[in-house]
Amino acid sequence: MNPPSQCFGVAGEAISGLRVRWFGRMEFTSALALQEEVVAKKRKDRSLSDELLLLEHEPVYTIGRTPDRSSLLGAAHLPHPLFSINRGGQATYHGPGQLMGYPIIDLRRCGQDLHRYLRWIEQLLIELLADYGIAASRQESLTGVWVENRKIASIGVGVRHWITMHGFALNVCGDLSPFNHIVPCGINEVAMTSIEKETGNKFSVGEIGESLEKLALDRIIDLRVAPEAEPINA
Known about the structure:
Layout lengths: L5 E3 L1 H7 L1 E9 L1 H17 L5 E8 L2 E4 L18 E3 L7 E3 L3 E7 L9 H17 L6 E3 L2 E6 L2 E11 L2 E9 L19 E2 L2 H5 L5 H15 L15
Parallel strand pairs: 2-3, 4-5, 10-12
Antiparallel strand pairs: 1-2, 3-7, 4-6, 7-11, 8-9, 9-10, 10-11
């Protein structure tokens, strides 16, 4: 059974067509099942609102659809469970202190442009971090969000019938040492950072999630295309 969610921004949903839900701490398998459920519903009924699921995970490692599993460094030594999932990208870690965002968005409303969607997520996180005094940016040819040469957010998505799942992980606070057991995102010698490390201040994941919710409701329009511009084969 999925834990009860708290719906943010009900009025904002009516305007934006985006429903944001906060689940608190959630097992990875439960979150994956929830995403599958929402995707299936949206496939059947295109009129349903897009969703953004926000939560924290218990410690877990994941890796995407790739025959190259070298970023796991063998995997047998990992201190937490490992899941292979239907997203792009190499190995990463999720756990307490990290804000997980799973947008379930119908890209047929957004020009069926996956690259544009990825850049939208990056920009959303860059703007969020700016609100906390952190000058974050992209790095050429690398997906994610960085503070100079330090990675603060990872992104890995899956798409089924133009409906997205999986999403982003933003490091807010807490222990980053589990990243030391892998090659994060397959990038050798990458340094991981967090909002806490960059600012010297403590923030809860829920607090950052609430700020992100407000920004996402405001910025979802940047991803949409006008109905007349939608692909005719949608």
